[in-house]
Amino acid sequence: xxxxxxxFATTFxxxxxxxxxxxASERGFYGGLTISQFEAEEQGISSxxxxxxxxAGYTFNRYIDLEASVFDxxxxxxxxxxxxxxxxxxxxxxxxxxxxxLFAEFGGVSLDLAIDESTTTVDTQGLETLSxxxxxxxxYGFGVKYNIGQWSLFGKNSQADTDADFNxxxxxxxxxx
Length: 177
Hints:
Blueprint: H1 2-25, E1 28-42, E2 45-59, E3 64-76, E4 81-95, E5 100-115, E6 133-148, E7 151-161, E8 165-176
Antiparallel strand pairs: 1-2, 1-8, 2-3, 3-4, 4-5, 5-6, 6-7, 7-8
């Protein structure tokens, strides 16, 4: 009887110790780079540009992340607009298996718009529809992530309704510390 108890205790302790690093590795900081296709539309005029970004985040558990980004949304000549911005979002994840995850994110975005007065869009009354300065809005997105050790590769599609409406397709890579 004592051998069974000792065997059970040893097995239980070993399994518990082996599971601790896995649970601890689900939490922590990550950072990465993104490349995005920003499709902007205002007053029926569309523009599509490529931009780069940097992301940083914290994983609370296998289901929730908090993520911030800094990005360049490109020079949208057709709209007379250049945009750079920052975002902060909550990311909800659904693990399909150990390697693949589906995710949805919701957050806020703030853009610094530089408007070329000679080429910007105007409404039916002749007033400019885009203006210089900071523009903020909520955004949402959906995507898929593939994990390779400490690295993850992801793709997502996001929508933001600022002065110009943005549809953003992003590919990125992140490293978990």
